[in-house]
Amino acid sequence: MLNIQNLTTSYGQIKAIRGITLEVPEGKIVSLIGANGAGKTTTMRTIAGQLKPEAGTITFCGQRIEGSRPHQIVKAGLALVPEGRAILGKMTVLENLEMGAFQRNDAQGIKDDMEKMMTWFPILKERLSQLGGTMSGGQQQMLAIARALMSRPKLLLLDEPSMGLAPIVVADIFKVVKEINAEGTTVLIVEQNVKQALKIADYGYVLEAGQIVLDGTGVALLNDERVKEAYLGGR
Ligand code: ATP
User: Fold this and answer.
1) Start and end of every ABC transporter domain (predicted)?
2) Which residue has the least CA distance to atom 15 on ligand 1?
């Protein structure tokens, strides 16, 4: 579904990612793990069209998308939940969700999806008229994911959904990501929470200093000595 070849993105002189090659097959969950500053957010922002790559290709559903505008990429079926969530704090939960569907005009489909969000995220149902900014971190993350899903993406990109959240909330988020995937949405997730991200992943890639240094199934990476040593506290 998503195929990235030799992708390089720079900030001025700094090459934040250098020749990344990875694949996200349809129906799967793929995790990209790495430490702070490894280039995870840069990768996601490049895929979502917010940064222009210096070199390489991004093919999504058979179509080249590198260098396309962010709204064209959403329209093609790809939605990013950015690091830090970026929900609209002064808008209500309902308005945030409606914003996610702004490029659609299938009223019935939007209504159906809104109902589906209420099932996946019951907490949002209770709080439709609450301002987004007044919700807890975990609730805001749920809202950010639900908002992205309102564009009915084929591929959902999650940039560090567990950041700053308590372990119990993190577990809820990963559980719902699995459910979303089971209902047909392909997922690419970047995380510093290596254990959780590999547990739910069909396949994973390890990013270090802008390059992929290791890849394998989620299980294989969880049991890999190098991953254990560097990311799982040597366990
Ligand atoms: P984090 O977990 O902190 O988000 P990350 O793995 O997502 O880390 P990136 O944010 O992609 O990493 O950053 C990769 C590299 O690019 C880092 O060395 C970072 O300092 C640099 N970088 C990121 N954003 C910018 C920017 N706007 N201008 C210059 N350098 C940047």
Assistant:
1) 2-234
2) 16
Question: What is the spatial distance between Cα 175 and Cα 217, in angstroms, rounded to a whole number?
Answer: 19
What's the gap in Å between 189 CA and the centre of ligand 1? 17
User: What distance in Å separates the CA atoms of residue 70 and residue 68, rounded to the nearest whole number?
Assistant: 7
DSSP state of 131: B
Give the global pTM. 0.93
The amino acid at 162: S
ipTM (interface predicted TM)? 0.92
- Look up residue 109 and give its amino acid: G
Cβ-based neighbours of 37, under 8 Å, separated by 6 or more: none
CB 93 within 8 A of CB 127: yes
Q: How far apart are CA 164 and CA 142, in angstroms?
A: 13
Bridging pattern class, strands 55-60 and 203-208? unpaired
CA 164 to chain centre: 16
At residue 87, does pLDDT exceed 90?
A: no
Ligand 1 proximity of 36 Cβ (cutoff 6 Å):
yes
Structure-derived torsion over alpha carbons of residues 90, 91, 96, 99, reported in degrees to the nearest 10: -110
Q: Residue 58: CB within 6 Å of ligand 1?
A: no
Residues 6+ apart with CB under 8 A from 69: 49
Secondary structure of residue 233 in the 3-state scheme? coil
